[in-house]
Design brief:
The protein has 268 residues and is an alpha/beta fold. 48% of the residues lie in helices and 14% in strands. It has a 5-stranded mixed sheet, sandwiched between helices.
Length: 268
């Protein structure tokens, strides 16, 4: 697969709190362990948010999984990759992402769910930390940083009418309304505990499932825009399912996804 053939790059990141950074920034000079510092920060967030969330801000996170789905101009699925598999080193994953975006794709559009609010800022902060170039991304005024263009299609931003409404239910709701699995055994707020338990495979499966959900939600937005007919979208979905079926032996996450698909049957 020549990378120039790829038009859309659907991606998602799973990340965890940077316990060392949290201790050094939030609790310097204390006798807290790094894990205790994370727990204290989460407790403060939980209190200040009236129990709504304990999710630590993006500035205090680092990536542990990056999954990308490569999509052709006709919206068909070409491939799904986990960056720096099987090591999943944060520095290498980030390096691969920016190198591909800057040098190996001719005319790419990013597709995310809340990527403007989390994934892209995290990758930018990691480029800052590791000293990686993101020249094209940062210098192109109407490129992948531009909110209202086509170089970064944040389907969360788009479907919420650029935050005119709160997208309650999120990707899980949108995926399930299309008959896709949405959230299954894991949820985003559980990733850190999974990481501490050494469940890196399960985290990467979860990231893969989120990318698939994002891809199918993206397809439906293209129907809304008139870039696909609903009949053609269903053909593209079938092609993607065939891809998952053909590759499920080497990628068990695909098999899990397929077994939890219900098929599109709109109601009421």
């Amino acid at each position: 697969m020549i990378k120039e053939e790829i038009k859309y790059l659907v991606f998602d990141i799973e990340s965890v709190p940077d316990s060392r950074l949290i201790k050094e920034v939030k609790y310097p000079g204390t006798d807290l362990t790094e894990n205790d510092a994370v727990a204290k920060f989460q407790e403060e967030i939980l209190t200040n948010s009236d129990g709504a969330t304990l999710f630590i801000p993006v500035t205090f996170q680092y990536p542990i999984s990056i999954c990308t789905a490569k999509v052709r101009e006709d919206f068909t699925l070409a491939d799904i990759c986990l960056l720096d598999e099987p090591e999943y080193r944060p520095s290498e994953m980030v390096k691969i992402f920016w190198n591909d975006l800057e040098n190996n794709y001719k005319d790419i559009s990013l597709v995310t769910f809340n990527g403007r609010g989390f994934d892209i800022p995290l990758l930018e902060l990691m480029a800052f930390r590791y000293g990686y170039s993101a020249k094209k991304h940062l210098k192109d005024k109407f490129g992948t940083r531009y909110r209202f263009g086509t170089k970064h299609i944040d389907v969360h931003d788009w479907l919420s009418n650029f935050n005119a409404i709160r997208m309650n239910g999120g990707l899980n709701l949108l995926a399930k309304s299309l008959g896709m699995p949405g959230k299954m055994d894991a949820k985003g707020e559980e990733v850190y505990d999974m990481f501490l338990e050494g469940k890196l495979k399960e985290i990467n499966d979860y990231c893969t499932h989120d990318v698939l959900d994002t891809y199918f939600v993206f397809l439906r937005t293209r129907v809304m825009l008139g870039e696909l007919t609903i009949a053609r979208e269903q053909q593209v979905v079938k092609q993607a399912m065939d891809f998952l079926e053909a590759n499920k032996e080497k990628r068990p996450a695909f098999d899990i996804y397929l077994k939890n698909c219900k098929g599109w049957s709109p109601w009421p």
